Q: What sequence folds into this?
């Protein structure tokens, strides 16, 4: 496993729904961005703009418009979009992304005990660089996942307040991802 925690020197990740790149997003005092969608037609330009500014960018493979959901899409993203890493719920895409040198974030949606167990088993097999747990407002579950998983955990989804973010970080998450601009701050 690579030392991916160096990418997370600040504990807040700016999540950009639709892959939008607003002036506020460009000015945000964050180091890492999650591009949650967007079109293949302009995603490369947006990623390049952030990377040129010294930012780290992860593209959510499942949400990019105009791409298939196969290994060729992963290779296209690596060669032409050039993010630091990718996010997905699909372990086959993440496995290929790891093989070709991208940092991987496995997104796990926790709905019940069964989805928790499946998520842990899947992450143990895949060994992604990071796991993003959703929703991220469950400190007790975050603590349990940290004990069970072979990699650092990011808390995302439904983090709406500073207190939500603090509780997720105090539970052991290495970072939180949020689209709430008021939480895109240097320190929580």
A:
């Amino acid at each position: 496993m690579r030392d991916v925690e160096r990418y997370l020197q600040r504990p807040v990740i700016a999540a950009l729904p639709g892959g939008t790149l607003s002036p506020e997003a460009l000015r945000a005092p964050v180091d890492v961005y999650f591009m949650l969608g967007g079109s293949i037609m302009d995603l490369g330009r947006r990623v390049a703009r952030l990377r040129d500014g010294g930012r780290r960018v992860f593209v959510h493979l499942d949400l990019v418009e105009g791409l298939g959901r196969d290994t060729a899409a992963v290779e296209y993203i690596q060669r032409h979009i050039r993010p630091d890493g990718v996010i997905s719920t699909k372990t086959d895409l993440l496995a290929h992304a790891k093989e070709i040198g991208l940092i991987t974030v496995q997104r796990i949606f926790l709905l019940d005990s069964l989805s928790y167990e499946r998520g842990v088993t899947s992450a143990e097999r895949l060994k992604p660089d990071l796991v993003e747990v959703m929703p991220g407002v469950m400190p007790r579950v975050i603590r349990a996942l940290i004990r069970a998983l072979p990699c650092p955990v990011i808390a995302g989804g439904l983090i709406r307040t500073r207190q939500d973010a603090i509780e997720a970080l105090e539970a052991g998450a290495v970072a939180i991802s949020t689209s709430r601009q008021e939480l895109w701050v240097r320190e929580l």
Summary: The helical segments are 23-27, 43-52, 71-81, 91-99, 113-126, 139-148, 162-170. The two ends are 28 Å apart (CA to CA). The first strand starts at residue 12 and ends at 17.
